[in-house]
Automatic annotation (TrEMBL):
UniProt remark on cofactor binding: Binds 1 divalent metal cation per subunit.
Binding site for a divalent metal cation: H31, D33, H64, D169
Gene Ontology BP annotations: pentose catabolic process; pentose-phosphate shunt
Cofactor(s), names only, from the UniProt record: Zn(2+); Fe(2+); a divalent metal cation; Co(2+)
Protein name: Ribulose-phosphate 3-epimerase
Binding residue positions for substrate: S6, H64, G140, F141, G142, G143, D169, G170, G171, G191, S192
A single Gene Ontology CC term: cytoplasm
Active site (UniProt): D33 (proton acceptor), D169 (proton donor)
Native organism: Caproicibacterium lactatifermentans
Pathway: Carbohydrate degradation
Keyword annotations of the record: Carbohydrate metabolism, Cobalt, Isomerase, Manganese, Metal-binding, Zinc
Pfam family, one: Ribul_P_3_epim
HAMAP family tied to this protein: RPE (MF_02227)
EC number: 5.1.3.1
Amino acid sequence: MKIAVSILGANFADLGTEVRQLDRAGADWVHVDVMDGHFVPNITFGPNMVHSLRPLTEKPLDVHLMISQPQAYIPQFIQAGADVVTFHLEAEGDPAQTIQQIHAAGAKAGISVKPGTPVTALRPYLSQVDMVLIMSVEPGFGGQKFNPAMLEKVRWLKKEAPQLPVEIDGGINPDTIHAAAEAGVEIFVAGSAIVGKADYKAAVTALHRASE
Ligand code: DX5
Ligand code: ZN
């Protein structure tokens, strides 16, 4: 299992310090939430932030694009150092083309669905992507409550494409992670369960333990 720590709730004025701390605390991936104020009602940052973070950690940068026009920005994010790029099925553009674009630029491709989108809509793309990201909250903000009904989507994916890694994002904490792990999730995004806590290492360890 992997913990992908979301820096959404970090102190953006001191993001370098935060990322170095998360690296030392045992984060497996650094999850970078990109929001455009259009696809979701919040704004974060763009490729330049990924470029600035890149030299601070050797951990994979897991870039989650919550933006309406992923194809217009994907090359810049990969150029900046993104290792995994996940876009939303609900965004503009042909998903098969978007996946090809990510691969052609040299990154791994993930596809994500919001809570209201049926997971079966992903069927045509399961043989093309490297990962599926299931949103267990409405995208846009950290600190929301985990929706356990989304685990049904994970179970469906694990039947449909057993080898394909599934990531879950939203409301993961020591109380919710076990059920997600049992459903078949391999990669757990965690924001508020780690960032903002006094001891990042203890928080990462608590998630690892609770997942077992
Ligand atoms: C929500 C983001 C998540 C969020 C997770 O739109 O995609 O990555 O930061 O935060 P928590 O773990 O607090 O739900
Ligand atoms: Zn995210």
